[in-house]
């Protein structure tokens, strides 16, 4: 039996430095994990890319593959975007696909692949008027947004605790979404 495949997309928010914890947790739950990073998150983790590729068994991606090149990842069963920055949440909602992470997320929405997004931003960014509109747009498009009670809740600037980011919530939601899809329900 084939393992379920998860595309885990990390953005440049402080918890991304702990993405290996999320990968290990997902693997312990039976997932084959492919890790994608925004360009800035990739820069932050540049000295750990080899370690992360060894951990996942797949290349870490942060850019679109060149036209005509073969796909290096297996087909996904679920996509988790965590931590998702203000920029990524807004870009996904607006369809601004200038990065691999946002582009694949937009494609996943269109293909109805189970998609979970958990933001990570401070309370100042969360007050930006576009953010609430983007959260609602994504929820309306079927994205499981883990924001607010039962998901990520912002802290005041400078008071975040990246080591306590609730990765487990996103992983649980991905499992639930895939199970619902397999039962013929909404993901």
From TrEMBL:
Q: Which residues form the Flavoprotein domain?
A: 13-120
What Gene Ontology terms describe what this protein does at the molecular function level?
catalytic activity
InterPro entries documented for this protein: Flavin_trans-like, Flavoprotein
Which residues are listed as membrane-spanning? Answer: none
Which SUPFAM superfamilies does the record cross-reference, listed alphabetically?
Homo-oligomeric flavin-containing Cys decarboxylases, HFCD (SSF52507)
Domain of life where this protein originates: Bacteria
Which protein, by its recorded name, is this? Flavoprotein
> Source organism lineage?
Bacteria, Bacillati, Actinomycetota, Actinomycetes, Kitasatosporales
């Amino acid at each position: 039996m084939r393992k379920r495949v998860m595309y885990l997309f990390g953005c440049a928010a402080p918890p991304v430095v702990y993405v290996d914890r999320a990968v290990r947790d997902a693997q312990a739950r039976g997932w084959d994990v492919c890790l994608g990073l925004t360009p800035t998150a990739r820069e932050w983790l540049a000295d750990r890319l080899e370690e992360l590729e060894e951990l996942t068994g797949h290349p870490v991606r942060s850019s679109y593959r060149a036209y005509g090149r073969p796909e290096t990842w297996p087909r996904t069963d679920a996509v988790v975007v965590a931590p998702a920055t203000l920029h990524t949440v807004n870009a996904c909602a607006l369809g601004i696909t200038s990065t691999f992470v946002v582009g694949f997320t937009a494609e996943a929405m269109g293909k109805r692949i189970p998609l979970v997004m958990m933001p990570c931003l401070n309370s100042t960014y969360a007050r930006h008027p576009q953010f609430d509109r983007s959260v609602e747009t994504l929820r309306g498009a079927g994205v499981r947004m883990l924001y607010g009670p039962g998901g990520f809740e912002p802290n005041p600037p400078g008071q975040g605790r990246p080591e306590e980011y609730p990765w487990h919530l996103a992983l649980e939601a991905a499992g639930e979404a895939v199970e619902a899809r397999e039962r013929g329900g909404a993901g």
